[in-house]
Amino acid sequence: MIFVTIGTQEPFDRLIKAVDDMAGVIKEHEVVAQVAHTRHVVKHMTCYPFLDPVGFNQYFNKASLIIAHAGMGTIISALEKGKPIIVLPRQLQYKEHRSNHQMATAKYMEELKYIHVVYDEALLAEKVDYVLHQNLKPLHTIGAVASEQLLSELNAFISS
Predict the structure, then answer these.
(1) Fold of the CATH domain 2-159
(2) Exposed (0-12), middle (13-18) or buried (19+): which is 68, by Cβ within 10 Å?
C-alpha cells in the first residue's frame, strides 16, 4: 500500500492530482491519501480530508511507500519507521506555501541521501516505479531517540 500525506494546513492539488493519475495506472498497489483541503476531485484512490492520529499511524505503518510534501514531521516519521519516502516539495511560485523552505528541506535531505525527491510532479510516476523496484528499502533510517554520541557530546558541551 502507498500512503500519501500532504499535511493539514494547506491544499496540495499538484501532488494529489499527480498521485491520483498514477493510481489509475498502477492497479497492483492500493493508494490511500490524507488530502486536507485539496480541491482536486480524486478518482483512483481512497482519500480522507483528515485522519486522527490513530488512523494516520495505522496507514503510515501499513504502507510500503510514503509519498508526501517536504514536511519535516512526515520525513522524520518515515526515517524512524524505516519507510521509503518520496517527497514533492511545495513551491512558493505555485502559492503552495508562504516560503520556499520545503525546497530547501528537500534539497538538503536529498544531498544527505535520506529521501527520494521529485521537483516536477510529471516525474512522480517514474520515481515511484524506480523506488518500488528497489525492494522498497529506505535510503536511511534514524532512531526515535537521540544517539548516545549526541547525548554525550551535549553533556560535555553543557558541562564545559
Answers:
(1) Rossmann fold (3.40.50)
(2) buried
CA separation for the pair 90, 85 (Å, rounded): 15
Question: pTM of the entire structure?
Answer: 0.86
Strand partners, 112: none
For the chain, domain boundaries: 2-159
**Cα gap 97→110, rounded to integer Å:** 20
Q: Which of 7, 71, 64 lies closest to 33, judged by CA?
A: 7
Q: Are 88 and 124 in contact (CB under 8 A)?
A: yes
Distance of CA 52 to the CA centre of its chain: 17
Return the bridge partners of 2, or none. 31, 65
Q: pLDDT tens string for the chain (160 positions)?
A: 999 999 888 889 999 999 999 999 988 899 999 999 999 999 999 999 999 999 999 999 999 999 999 999 999 999 999 999 999 998 877 676 777 888 899 999 999 888 999 999 999 999 999 998 886 566 667 777 766 776 677 777 788 7
Helix (H, G, I), strand (E, B) or coil at 121: helix
Q: What is the DSSP string of 19-43?
A: HHHHHTT-TTS-EEEE-TT--S---
